[in-house]
# Entry
Amino acid sequence: PETDTRAFTEEHCDIIAVKLLRSADTSNGGFGNAPKFPQTFAIQYLLAYSYHTGHEKALMQAELSLNKMLQGGIYDHLAGGMARYSTDNAWLVPHFEKMLYDNALLVFVLADAYQLTQKKHYADAICKTLDFLISEMKHPQGGFYAALDADSEGEEGKYYVWDKQEINDLLGEDAGMYCSWFNITDNGNWEGKNILHITGEPEVFAGMNHMNVQDMQNFISRCNDKLLAARNKRVRPLTDDKILLGWNALLVTAFSKAYAATGMEKYKSEATALFDFINRVFADGSASGYLHTYKNNQARFPAFLDDYAYLVQACLHLQEITTRQQYLLEAKRITQYVIDFFEDEETGFFYFTHLNQTDVITRKMDMHDGATASGNSIMAENLFYLSVIFEKRDWYEKAQNITSQLAEAVMKYPSSFAVWAFVILKQVMGINEIVVTGTDAGTIHKEMLRLYMPNKVMQCQTAEITGFPLLNGKDFGSGSYIYLCRGNSCKAPVNKVYELLDMVKKQGY
# Structure
């Protein structure tokens, strides 16, 4: 890549949005043609872009994409969780394999969508997805398995599909309405079987059946439970039971974002417990080093860039939901380790493998955001965040250097560099440095977490603490104080969240 010294502007962000919307499927949601992957990073960008600019089409496409996936066969309507991708444009027929990282990333974007729109079905999908992971993919010691296979009894999807007669036998007189909702027919919609999927709207369907929406949803839920109980008696797909550091770190962030959006304490507990598990089983005994995979009570192989990048990201989110500043110190320590052992001094980018790893022919660099984000894009985001927290100008410049080198590629192919695009958007819109202090800071904290503010860095403390520049000079007396800062220049504090929001709106932040 060639260095691009131009400062990023709103025009860059507009170009990215236009390119994404040009490739969007405006009927079925998502982007491009089959096979269709969730592309949650592109959806996250459109949500944030709409928040900053008021762009209605961006928000509409983001919501359409999420809604169609949640209605489609790619989503498991009985147990929760999303399959890896759809083989058709309408999200009907998935490749039935369920990956841990896909479901963590789904929660990322659902949390954003719920914070922005406050639409209940996004919160419901967050809970159903995470509850599925806890129920079906959690190791007894605390980590989470990598995947559930697509096949069972030698057939792909056999565990998930239905004959209409099976449903008639299970539901009796309730079968007609249930089959109508999930488009279940005698002939089936895939190889003679039925994949549950929704094409109608709850309000319309409930009205047609002379019910209110809540009663209709309760009815569907009761029927789902009966089908799930029957499905649980089938031969289950095999579990890929290795536990991967990076994917579990993504889930820490997913639990953190779920807690922030919904306020459900169990997700904060899951986030902190999973982080503790990671440190317990993956730390390799060196200053900051980690191992990549864990199975049969043994961690093996040096961790890769992605593992470290996602782990730093998890630390940042954990600090925001717990107010424990040691997570920031951990993020700083791991980031320095990445700089020391993964950075290419010539370009500033990071190699995928550790400097001292000797069992590779060559050290590659990965820039593309595909099914998962590239370690480089996440490190750029981490460096920007930590440069604000610790006033480290050199880390800001590192992040700015690698982001600017990829500017042209991001403009041309934003769907392949969607996390980089999100980093650019944050830099253009500026970072809101939010500091909450005072003896009653805890009561404000949870309310602050519920806000959708994709360009914020937040610290919350009830008592003075050293080592964190954003906390310097703040009032820690009785009550609560909410500071809005930019470049460590702070406005006079306010005491209510709505006052902060008014300030943000007036300042155009």
